[in-house]
Amino acid sequence: MAELHPIEASELHARRERIFLGLAGLFLASMTMLNILGVSRFVDLSFTVFGVRVPMPLAVGVLPYPITFLCTDFISELYGRRRANAVVWTGLLLNVWVIAFLWLGGALPPDPALERATGLPAPQAYDFAFYRIRMLTMGTVAASMVAYLSAQLCDVFLFHFWKKLTRGRHLWLRNNGSTLVSQLVDTVAVISITHFYARALPLDPDRDVWPQIFVFIGSGYLFKFCVALLDTIPFYLGVHWLSRYLEIDPTLEHAAGREESGLNA
C-alpha cells in the first residue's frame, strides 16, 4: 500500500476523495466544454416514426450536458447535498473564468481587421476560428449560466426532496424525477434566452419564430430525456458498487433523521 499523505486520514478517506475528484472533474470538464462548443455547430439527428419525420436539430454543446446531471446525482447520493451544491457553484465560477480569458484573448493586441457584415476577421485569417468561437460563446454565456444554475440547483433540490420523501428508497425515482424536471427547466431557459437575448439560434427569417423555437426546445429535451432514462441502469450499478467500495450508506442521513424524530417525539 502506498504511503498516505499527511492530509489523508486513512486509505478509505483517500479513496472517497479520489472518487469525488473524478466525479467533480467530469462534471466541470463537461460544463466547460459545453460553453466553449455551445452553438458553434448544429447536428441533425432527425428520425422518422410511422412515416412522420421528427426534426431533431441539436447544438453540439448539448451532447456532453446530460452527463453533468448523472455526476451531480452520484455526488448527491454518496456525498450529500452540500457537496453537490458546492460543485454546481464551482462550475459557475469556472465558466466565468473561461469567459474572462476568451474576452482577454480578443482584447489584447494586435487588433484584427474585422469585416463590417459579420464583425469577424476574414474566413481565411489565422485567428478567424478564435473570434468565431469567442463571439458565439460570449453571446450565449448569459443563457447558459442562467439555465445552468436553474437546472443544476433544481436537480440537486429535487433529488434530495425525493430521497427524503421516500426515506432513501426508490433510487430510480429520485434519479429520473430530478433529472427530467431539471432538464426541462434547462432546455426552455437556454433556448429562450439564446434567441431573445443573444440572437444566436440559426432561425429561418422567412418562417414564424415560435414554431422554430419549439422545435429546438422539443428536440433538445427529447435527447436529454432519452439519455436520462438510459443512464438509470448505470446509475443503479454505480451506486451499488461505489457504496460498497467507499463504505458509504446513502440512506444513513435519513435513518439518522428518523431516529432523531423518534427521540424528539
Quick rundown:
This protein has helices at 11-37, 66-79, 81-107, 128-165, 171-198, 209-230, 232-245, 252-264; strands spanning 42-44, 47-49, 52-54, 57-59.
Walk me through the structure.
The chain is mainly α. It has one domain (15-39, 61-249). The chain contains 8 helices and 4 strands. The chain has helices at residues 11-37, 66-79, 81-107, 128-165, 171-198, 209-230, 232-245, 252-264, and strands at 42-44, 47-49, 52-54, 57-59. The strands form 2 sheets. A two-stranded antiparallel ribbon has the order 1-4. A two-stranded antiparallel sheet has the order 2-3. Helix 1 (11-37) crosses helix 3 (81-107) and helix 5 packs antiparallel against helix 6 (209-230). The longest helix is centred in the middle third of the chain and has 38 residues, at 128-165. The radius of gyration is 22 Å and the shape is globular. The chain starts with 10 loop residues before the first helix and ends with a helix.
